[in-house]
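ESCALATION

Customer reports they have been waiting on this structure for their group meeting. Please prioritize. Original submission:
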Amino acid sequence: MRARRLVAAASLVVGLVALTGCRTEPGVAAYVGDQQITEDTVDSILDELRDSRAATEAPELGGPAPELPPRSQVVGELVLGQVCDQVSADQGYQPRGRVEPVQLAGQLGLPPESEYVQQLAALHTCLSGLPVGELAAPTEQELAEVIAAGRAAGVISPDTPDAEIAGQLDVPQLRNALASRRALAEAAGEHGVTVNPRYRPLEFPILNFSSEVAAVSVPLGEPGSDAVTDVSSPEPPTGAQQPA
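Update from on-call: job pushed to the front of the queue and completed.
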């Protein structure tokens, strides 16, 4: 295929949110309304996973060690979890399906009892019930953005006309992803999400071309910042992936 088949991303994600004033405190990774997600919480989650990986690397166990999620990804998923819980409480919706930690643990190669897997399973479960409304045809700009992302990643041929690619991409799966992005943006806009500058810009995929190439992504929190960030939170442990 000239345009690779779109595949669903690991999880739905929260959309662009309104900035409700500059909020920065040492040790705070993000705010959701008046709730804080602290760097200590992120450290605790990653430390637990790191300890688990060290045990997996023991010679007597063998096998490859599981990949740890980037620090910024953990922050985003914690933010999404709080936003989804608040929207669910406000609107009174119920999840349409339950995701068990053991399901995700098998996919990720991480312990099902770990805090990260437990939080991620709860996020999947909550987002399964988020109303997205009617599917709508993508706008020209939305299609252009998806095509540009595919070309930049090398998954769409530069020689294929945009009109031809657009016809291949405009399928129900894409329309659902775009409807989800719009719904999430509207929902998250009602909850004051502010992200520590060290994690900006923070984007999460709703729909992927492949496991590593996003087709539709939603920004979380503010765009990139030139602000000095080394005093806002502690440096991650040596070897940890630095956020953008």
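Sent to customer with the following note: Helices lie at 39-56, 71-91, 101-108, 115-127, 140-153, 162-169, 172-189.
Escalation resolved.
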